[in-house]
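Bench notes, afternoon.
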Amino acid sequence: MKKAILALAFATSILNVHAQIKIPKSGLGNVVNNATNTLTSGGSNLSESEIAKGLKEALDVGTKNAVGSVSKANGYLKNPKVKIPFPPEVKKVENAVRNVGMGKQADDFVVALNRAAEDAAKSATPIFAEAIKNMTLADAKAVLKGNETAATDLMKGKTSAELAAKFKPIVQQSMQKVQVTKYWKPIATKYNQLPMTQKVNPDLEKYVTDKAIEGLFKMIAEEEIKIRKDPAARVSDILKSVFGS
């Protein structure tokens, strides 16, 4: 039961990446006690559906904050946890062109990749909102009883395909806007002119799309794990409104 209480505490908060809402120690005690009563004895006036509604509201606020953190300028580029590097299959290209004095061009290319991801991430909010709206009571219970990334896994399962479909055309447009090809073409041309090399032509649109989605869920998962370990670290208003303060 302790696991379930902790799970509920961070599940309502995991996606609130930037919120720094704190409550007095006595308030936290009330929240935990009321949560215990609700989940064990049924002594609270709150029904399971009302708890699920509270979870949905918290997730809605949290996903907007999470998307906001990566979709702003440098949201991917300056965050080493989600920064998009050269595609692994052409890492040898980066090394080679840097060795022949094209370090700035390589850096500009990486910046362009991350700018495209930041642009695409803005479109994630309505997709998350729809998934949260359609969450069932069974989904909420699965989050409460699940592992340390249960909420992240739930959102990933429900939204990954749609995120990919939504992100890709935006990535295409953004790559044109930030001129990814402009930065990639001289790099690839120079590399292909080097002796003993095989021509390269990676699918940059798919790469940026996949990495943008991967980075978004990575941030969500890390926040979920942190709050599971320390429920007092992130306490949202919605948690207090559902369980009392």
